[in-house]
# Entry
Amino acid sequence: MRWTVLLVWVTATGCLTGRRATVASLPLREAPELIEELGKRDSDWSTLGVRLESTASAMGKAGTFTLNVRVARDSVIWMSISPALGVEAARVLLTPDSVQVLSKLPGSRFVFQGNYDMLEEAVQAPVSFGLVQDLIMGRPLMLTDKEDGYVSKVDGDQYVLMSKYNRNVRKLVGTDNKELAPGDSLSIVIEDKKAERLLEKAEKKAEKKAEKKDEDAEDLLVKRYWLDGKTLDPVKDVVDDLLRSRTVRVERSDFDDTDIGRLPNRVRMTAKGPEGIFDALIYTKRRRAGRAYDFPFNIPENFERRTEL
# Structure
């Protein structure tokens, strides 16, 4: 009996020591160092062609799509979207300042031509050319280069970059007197009137900053990024938009070394908000960098012109 107890004790303490050693084996690295390392991953490329397959669901509807994407770095993103084994259903053309969508669906043939403010109004979420390009390239979404705006933590075998959150965020989510842990779920917990006053104040401030084209217009965004402890692959982003009660989560896996750096072949993107849940699983089937691409976007004369989506 004593030998059994001794064996159990040795096994348990050995496992515990192993777990501690695993955690301790990942030294803390400061946020500026991690951001600098992430910047080094951005290789020199000019054009990229990608073929993606996606299964997406939203508002109770689901479908499988093929996306052919062409990118001229920092200038043009072109997409052709087709149902699985079907004809083209839509075409998208993005530049840093403009958004064009051509819908070819029967009964809904139209072209939308506008800007990102109009697109943000339609989807009720921050959208920009840079964000879409980062999503295609497997880079952390909405990660700024303001090194003093983040803190770093160790979470098991991963590093976590967390945006510094102000006093309003602390009040809204009930962490005024404690630190926000990497895996904490965020939601507004204070009384309705207090929350309403804070949100109204933040919304007015965001509108003023947006007029100045400030990229960090949202004071109520809490951003967290998980990086693989060995490769620094950006394996997960979680962005909580407290102003709009939305959370966006991006999970990346199956990273490969390519001619333009380490890129994920599998991306899971989930957005939760008052309207429901959007969920998409995206697989990369092909990448080709450095080729000459055209970006055709011809608008048929009989298509309806729309100024909102």
